[in-house]
Design a protein that fits this description.
By secondary structure, this protein is an alpha/beta fold. The chain is 34% helix and 16% strand. The protein is built from seven helices and eight strands; from the N terminus they run E-E-H-E-H-E-H-E-H-E-E-H-H-H-E.
Length: 275
């Protein structure tokens, strides 16, 4: 059911009752991980370190990518592609990134920047079919309403519906990514703060693989790497001499890139902010 545009919801749905304290992520507890996000590079930004940790522990990891990212605004720095070729470029970049992270990749073939106009129940059915085939113990997606991008929220919502439609005994744990954490624009709204994350993945031992996966998405990330390299050495994380002090948002980005990835346990039976 779609949210009534005239009645915005500001209070997030209840988290799972089991998620009362922050727990460290432990890949030894996993049977398999399925990440469901809309774009090439979302997997690396949101969960690249966690995917790398799980793969290193022998866990089956899969990225179900909603689109080919062909409406991405960047073409490389300097530009090396164009709108007509961007789909092929980003598809190849994602395959390279997933090879770095040790995960398989599948595409849903949705239109980039148009997922919000898809039937969420139809999308949920397709995602549910993949869950049934792969039988992951954990599914990761964007927390609906905290994705910042409409595609992020729409596919996160469809993923919640996909898990909701499974018998309880077949449901995997559902983890949501709130883009920007406390810097998320919804956080400052009344009732919008999600509080402390429920699951935190320590990625310090694998952060170089996450950074390498992001670098594989060079059509989109070359600009970001150029900005980061003004502040610190991306390989050693040592600050550059004379570099300006990074602002709070930049420090938060660096933490998620190199130290920890945070997730919220989503109760699939609770209404999302898109309902």
């Amino acid at each position: 059911m779609s949210r009534d545009a005239g009645s915005p919801v500001t209070t997030p749905p209840a988290a799972s009752a089991a998620a009362t304290v922050t727990r460290p992520y432990d890949p030894a507890e996993e049977r398999g991980i399925l990440v469901v996000l809309p774009h090439p590079d979302d997997e690396s930004f949101a969960a690249g370190g966690t995917l790398a940790r799980a793969a290193a522990a022998g866990v089956k990891t899969t990225y179900l990518c909603g689109t080919y990212g062909d409406m991405g605004r960047r073409m490389g720095r300097p530009a090396f592609t164009n709108r007509e070729a961007l789909r092929d470029v980003r598809t190849a970049e994602l395959k390279d990134a997933c090879q770095v992270l040790g995960c398989d990749v599948r595409f849903m073939g949705l239109r980039d920047k148009c997922i919000e106009f898809e039937d969420p129940d139809e999308l949920a059915g397709r995602i549910r079919d993949v869950i049934r085939r792969l039988r992951p113990s954990t599914v990761v997606t964007f927390y609906p309403g905290y994705g910042v991008h409409p595609d992020h929220d729409a596919l996160g919502h469809a993923t919640v519906l996909a898990v909701r439609g499974l018998p309880r005994e077949e449901r995997p744990r559902l983890l949501g990514v709130a883009v920007g954490g406390e810097n998320n624009p919804r956080w400052g709204q009344e009732g919008g703060a999600l509080g402390a994350p429920h699951v935190v993945s320590d990625i310090r031992g694998v952060y170089r693989r996450k950074v390498a996966a992001l670098a594989a998405h060079r059509s989109q990330t070359a600009v970001l790497f150029a900005q980061w390299e003004k502040l610190w050495d991306v390989e050693t994380l040592e600050p550059k001499p004379g570099a300006p002090e990074p602002d709070e948002q930049t420090r938060a980005w660096r933490k998620r890139l190199t130290e920890a990835e945070s997730f919220y346990v989503i109760d699939p039976d609770a209404r999302t902010l898109l309902e």
